[in-house]
Design brief:
Length: 269
């Protein structure tokens, strides 16, 4: 029998909010920004090092999002539990909501889950995160504040043995306004010189709906919180080796701060 609850009272809440009183029109999300596991789930049957890898979370995304939120004076919301518990950028009915295999790694603790076990993850991890986003966006709307939604993610440089050449990917669904504004700026820019990365100064390789495609079936944040509300919205993916270190995160936060401020006036006064 599954437990009646998933999270014990002394465990962290699934949602972290940064710069709650931010004045920027930008509103940031970080759907895969943590790698905690609820105590009741043990280790999900995988060694600890797997949680350090990209299958456990979006490496570097949390630090980049926090620093970018501070620079922009923008509110950011972050999920703190691992995407292996449940994926907060997926509809609950998605087949990989609580994935049984990530890249080539089998997740024994997600095998043969009873509906009640999936429901616990949805109600105690996924739903509080989505409701917190909804509440913050509702408050902004009620206050007459404009909102530009940017979902911050990162991607592994090598997936199933195949190298990915992009430094940054812009993911969008129906709404391509922010992607179209940012793309030419990215294409004429270089990897930040102060990032400490071996490719610093190299012209950016920009993915257009690469390395993933964004859709209603495979994503949640942009389609539901962005497009269904009529908000200008975009998912930004940064290659993880570029933002693994605090130095890289700081450099890219400064880079995106300049870039997002440059296009902001096209959408809000």
């Amino acid at each position: 029998m599954p437990p009646e609850t998933l999270l014990d009272p002394d465990e962290p809440a699934p949602v972290a909010i940064h710069v709650p009183d931010g004045r920027s029109p930008y509103f940031l999300t970080c759907d895969h920004g943590g790698r905690l596991l609820p105590r009741r789930l043990g280790d999900l049957g995988i060694p600890a090092f797997e949680l350090e890898r990209h299958i456990g979370w979006d490496i570097g995304a949390a630090g980049l999002t926090r620093q970018l939120a501070q620079r922009l004076d923008a509110t950011a919301i972050r999920q703190v539990y691992s995407r292996l518990v449940c994926d907060c950028n997926r509809p609950p009915e998605a087949p990989d909501f609580a994935t049984r295999i990530s890249e080539n790694t089998h997740i024994p603790g997600n095998r043969d889950l009873a509906p009640a076990e999936v429901a616990l993850r949805r109600e105690e991890i996924w739903r509080p995160y989505q409701e917190a986003i909804e509440r913050l966006l509702d408050d902004r709307k009620a206050a007459g504040r404009p909102t530009l939604l940017v979902a911050m993610h990162s991607f592994t440089p090598v997936y199933k043995g195949k190298a990915r050449p992009w430094h940054v990917g812009l993911l969008y669904n129906r709404d391509r306004r922010l992607a179209d504004a940012i793309r030419p700026l990215l294409q004429s820019a270089a990897v930040p010189a102060d990032s400490g990365h071996a490719e610093a100064g190299r012209l950016l390789v920009v993915g257009d709906n690469e390395p993933y495609r964004l859709s209603d079936e495979t994503d949640y944040t942009v389609p539901v919180h962005g497009e269904k509300r009529g908000l200008v919205s975009l998912e930004i993916e940064v290659r993880q080796d570029l933002i693994t270190t605090p130095q890289g995160q700081a450099a890219w936060a400064a880079f995106f701060d300049r870039l997002l401020r440059e296009v902001q006036g096209r959408f809000v006064n």
